[in-house]
Design brief:
This protein is α+β, with helices and mostly antiparallel strands. The chain has helices spanning 2-16, 111-120, 161-167, 196-201, 245-252, 326-332, 349-372, 378-399, 455-461, 515-532; strands at residues 26-27, 33-34, 70-77, 81-86, 92-95, 99-102, 127-135, 138-145, 151-156, 176-185, 188-193, 214-219, 223-228, 235-237, 243-244, 260-266, 272-278, 286-287, 292-296, 303-310, 317-321, 345-347, 406-407, 425-428, 434-439, 445-448, 469-477, 483-486, 503-508. Among the domains are: 26-56 and 138-219, Roll (Outer membrane lipoprotein wza fold like), CATH 3.10.560.10; 70-135, wza like fold, CATH 3.30.1950; 223-296, Ubiquitin-like (UB roll) (Roll). Helix 7 runs antiparallel to helix 8 (378-399) and helix 7 (349-372) packs antiparallel against helix 10.
């Protein structure tokens, strides 16, 4: 019994634990910002093995010759000589009939002048000299610090810093710095590298490496994220404690449409402030570690764009003045004999978003009821397990439903009173003499319209109600999207008049553990049917 209690307590602590790796803006004892491995870190895409296996024989005039480098020397005229000469352990090369020439530390760009000067001491004229590097020496360089695979790596002295970092599988994106990289020579700082210069502007320093050099990748500095109207949605590292909003805008590459930025600033008390800044104030705003910035376009337009779909012969994309009505649009629509203008439909994104939010809230409530409703016996509990599994599968299917956002136009509403919005979709249905019957009937299908024929006749043509049919929840959806509920159960009164182009939807019965459970499931089925004209099976 004690083991069971301890196990339950442990499980409670596990569920209550917080994954600190997902908290943006936390710092370790050294002040370095800890970020989630899954975050999109600027520069992490650089190390994919594209540099590691490339040998870079390139001319670098500032390269300083070292022991083991090979120089091609050609002399002609009064004295002819051609040979590849290696810089020996004393830093020299030996030229017959000329003598020793010291090349250790000589710039690559000065090789010819240094050798020529020495030759001229022996041959005043009529001897010509050509000299060039044949190959850079192989070196072994230590790569350490915050890289994925620290170690000793071989390469050419002319290889770039990026090649050696790539050999070490790149900088660790969780805690490695892309902006504070040091090349150590003889245990002293030789060169400081900021990879952002390469990532943003393509600038790269090419210091000549020597055996025993160390590439040290420092810990990551303060990180700030950027998203929105930018070319690069990443987390960016600051070299200093603070970074100006203007600098972040440059790093992220804001688009010409950007006019302002929303800044979420995290505080030491685990709270944050939200502020908005105009473009001209970016240079005066300084960001801190963990800040999140969203760059936005704020503009006002005098026109709106709407789409016209369905049966018509006119344009499918129209630009109208802001404040235009449905009547203004109808005046521009070029209809044809098959256009059912009287059943015109409007679909709006904002309405679809509200419908989706309401549906998600109902599904969440249904999920809670399914998982928390108690059972009074072990036999009932076994039955509930199967029921709960079926309901959870139904919830997953319902979550994938995307409402269309249709606005129902009532008969008393005039087209002149309906103001159109940006992105509205206007659909012109095709004139139809078909009535569709679907859902819980024997043979769902489409049937020709007969004037005056009652709804019961169409249901009978479809094979009548199935055993799972909810006779009190029969939906009649008109061609313009308006929905009417019909109660086909015994002793009900009033039948809707069926018109050409109507759809008749028979919903399934919803039977649950409690009355609240059943009512909620019925509402969900009803809302899905109206919003999508689709009947979900339970």
């Amino acid at each position: 019994m004690k083991k069971i209690i301890l196990t339950l307590i442990s499980a409670m602590f596990c569920f209550a634990a917080i994954d600190v790796g997902t908290i943006v803006g936390n710092s370790d004892d050294n002040g370095a910002v800890l970020i989630n491995d899954n975050e999109n870190v600027f520069g992490s895409h650089l190390f994919k093995g594209n540099f590691a296996n490339v040998k870079q024989y390139m001319y670098n005039p500032d390269y300083r010759l070292n022991i083991g480098d090979t120089v091609i020397l050609k002399m002609w005229g009064a004295f002819e000589f051609e040979q590849a000469l290696s810089v020996d352990s004393q830093g020299n090369i030996f030229i017959p009939k000329v003598g020793v020439v010291k090349l250790l530390g000589v710039r690559n760009g000065d090789i010819l002048s240094v050798i020529t000067k020495q030759v001229k001491k022996i041959y005043k004229d009529n001897v010509f000299v050509y000299a060039d590097m044949e190959a850079y020496q192989n070196v072994s360089v230590f790569v350490t610090g915050n890289v994925n695979k620290p170690g000793l790596y071989e390469g050419l002295s002319s290889d770039s810093l990026i090649q050696y970092l790539d050999k070490a599988s790149g900088i660790n994106s969780q805690y490695g710095s892309f902006r504070k990289i040091t090349i150590l020579r003889n245990n002293k700082s030789f060169k400081q590298i900021d990879l952002y210069d390469f990532l943003i502007d393509g600038k790269m320093e090419l210091p000549a490496f020597r055996s025993g050099d160390v590439i040290l990748v420092d810990s990551v500095g303060p990180y700030i994220s950027a998203k929105g109207e930018v070319l690069r949605e990443f987390r960016f590292e600051s070299k200093q404690e603070f970074m100006s909003l203007k600098e972040l805008a440059k790093l992220a590459g804001i688009k010409p449409t950007t006019t302002n930025a929303i800044v979420k600033s995290y505080k030491n008390n685990n709270r944050f402030n939200i502020n908005s800044y105009d473009l001209e104030k970016f240079k005066d705003v300084f960001l801190r570690a963990g800040d999140e910035v969203e760059f936005l376009p704020e503009y006002s337009a005098d026109e709106i764009r709407v789409s016209v779909e369905g049966e018509h012969d006119g344009l499918h994309r129209l630009v109208l003045k802001k404040g235009s009505t449905l009547q203004d649009l109808k005046d521009k629509i070029v209809s044809n004999p098959q256009s059912n203008i009287e059943a015109i439909q409007i679909f709006r994104k904002s309405v679809a978003t509200v419908q989706k939010s309401l549906l998600d809230a109902q599904l969440k409530e249904l999920e809670t009821l399914a998982l928390t409703t108690p059972s009074v016996s072990s036999e009932e509990a076994n039955v509930r397990v199967q029921e709960t599994k079926a309901i959870l599968e139904f919830i997953e299917r319902a979550k994938k439903v995307e409402p269309k956002g249709q606005i129902t136009i009532n008969e008393k509403t005039t087209a002149k009173s309906i103001i159109l919005e940006e992105g509205d979709i206007i659909n012109i249905p095709t004139l139809s003499n078909i009535v569709i019957v679907q859902g819980e009937v024997g043979i769902p299908g489409a049937f020709t319209y007969l004037e005056g024929q009652a709804i019961d006749k169409y249901i009978a043509l479809a094979g009548g109600f199935s055993q799972r049919a909810n006779k009190s929840r029969v939906l009649v959806i008109r061609a313009n999207g308006k929905a009417e509920n019909y109660d086909a159960s015994p002793f009900s009164f009033g039948k809707p008049k069926i018109q050409a182009g109507d759809s008749i939807l028979i919903l399934p019965k919803a039977e649950g553990k409690t009355l609240q459970y059943t009512n909620l499931l019925t509402q969900i089925l009803y809302h899905v049917a109206i919003a999508t004209k689709v009947i979900l099976d339970i």
